[in-house]
């Protein structure tokens, strides 16, 4: 039993001492993706083609070995380098406590999956990996967000799932600085912080607005003061009584809607006329 323990221990030490380093380096994805870099997350190139040609590993590079991502800030790089030869590397710096205090290790590991999930050459849809997609999570190896505005470095590692030892790793990425949030009270909203072009454009727009208001005011004054009053249509005479247009026998017609109006004389009223012309053109005019 003791012999078996020493054999396992020696294999673990041998595996840790024989880590393979590939020359690939993680970086921000060149793809035109939205929010490639935020205040607490970043989208990296995927680990496709990183570990597919490795041999003599303690695990099968295609079906057994697992790809993990190491995210580190500040002293996390040196802390990981000191811990990477130890077994069960995934438990040494869990995410919930990785950045909680000054004594934290400042790094954490996230599992991506097997090598076959990241084929080489790269297949559409597998060319990137978003760090921080799990938000402010609480499990030891979740894909949590990074401290806001921090400067982080990343590396992909190949891990034997039997004892969680690192069998291969990539190079560290360059420093990637996340966006910092600005205090709204410290934002300068005065003219001193604006360019000359912005001031000129603002002045021109204000002038156009003032001119438009002036034109509207002039139009309103013109409508109120200079418009003509409506004149009522003058109706000649009354329509209470009128003659029908029977040329041979004209007769008056009384409109009942105007019975209360005073009557006006008609052609048949007993008023003496000086003369009239008969409607029958064959008869001469007579005088009454």
Describe the structure.
This protein has 288 residues and is of the alpha+beta class. The chain has a domain at 41-181. The chain contains 4 helices and 10 strands; from the N terminus they run H-E-E-E-H-H-E-E-E-E-E-H-E-E. It has helices at residues 2-17, 76-83, 95-98, 196-225, and strands at 20-21, 42-45, 66-73, 107-114, 128-131, 151-160, 165-169, 176-177, 241-243, 252-254. The strands form 3 sheets. Strands 1, 3, 4, 6, 7 and 8 form a 6-stranded mixed beta sheet that branches. A two-stranded antiparallel sheet has the order 2-5. It is elongated, with a radius of gyration of 49 Å. Residues 1-16 have low confidence and may be disordered. This is Uroplakin 3b. Residues 246-271 are annotated as: Disordered.
Question: How would you summarize the topology of this molecule?
Answer:
Layout: H1 2-17, E1 20-21, E2 42-45, E3 66-73, H2 76-83, H3 95-98, E4 107-114, E5 128-131, E6 151-160, E7 165-169, E8 176-177, H4 196-225, E9 241-243, E10 252-254
Parallel strand pairs: 1-7
Antiparallel strand pairs: 2-5, 3-4, 3-6, 6-7, 6-8, 9-10
Question: Could you write a compact summary of the structure shown?
Answer:
It comes from Salmo trutta. The protein is an alpha+beta fold.
Low-confidence stretches: 1-16
Distance N terminus to C terminus?
A: 159 Å
Overall 3D geometry? elongated
Main pleated sheet? 6 strands, mixed
Radius of gyration: 49 Å
Which structural category do the helix and sheet elements fall into?
alpha+beta
The secondary-structure element order is HEEEHHEEEEEHEE
Helical proportion? 10-25%
Number of strands: 10
Strand content: 15-25%
What is the helix tally?
A: 4
Mean pLDDT: 80
């Amino acid at each position: 039993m003791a012999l078996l323990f020493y054999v396992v221990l020696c294999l673990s030490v041998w595996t840790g001492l024989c880590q393979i380093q590939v020359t690939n380096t993680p970086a921000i994805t060149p793809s035109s993706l939205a929010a490639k870099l935020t205040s607490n997350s970043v989208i990296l190139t995927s680990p496709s083609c990183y570990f597919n040609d490795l041999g003599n590993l303690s695990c099968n590079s295609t079906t057994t070995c697992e790809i993990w991502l190491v995210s580190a800030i500040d002293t996390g790089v040196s802390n990981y380098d000191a811990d990477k030869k130890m077994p069960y590397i995934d438990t040494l710096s869990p995410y919930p406590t990785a950045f909680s205090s000054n004594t934290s290790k400042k790094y954490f590991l996230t599992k991506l999956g097997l090598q076959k999930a990241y084929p080489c050459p790269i297949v559409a849809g597998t060319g990137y990996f978003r760090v921080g997609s799990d938000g402010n999570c609480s499990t030891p190896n979740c894909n949590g967000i990074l401290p806001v505005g921090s400067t982080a470095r990343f590396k992909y590692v190949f891990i034997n799932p039997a004892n969680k030892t690192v069998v291969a790793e990539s190079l560290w990425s360059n420093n990637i600085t996340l966006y910092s949030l600005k205090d709204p009270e410290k934002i300068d909203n005065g003219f001193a912080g604006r360019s000359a072009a912005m001031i000129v454009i603002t002045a021109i727009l204000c002038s156009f607005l003032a001119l438009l208001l002036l034109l509207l005011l002039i139009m309103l004054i013109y409508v109120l003061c200079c418009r003509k009053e409506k004149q009522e249509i003058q109706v000649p005479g009354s329509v209470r009584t009128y003659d029908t247009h029977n040329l041979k026998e004209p007769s008056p017609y009384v409109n009942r809607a105007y019975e209360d109006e005073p009557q006006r004389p008609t052609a048949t009223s007993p008023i003496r006329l000086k003369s009239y012309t008969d409607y029958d053109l064959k008869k001469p005019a007579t005088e009454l």
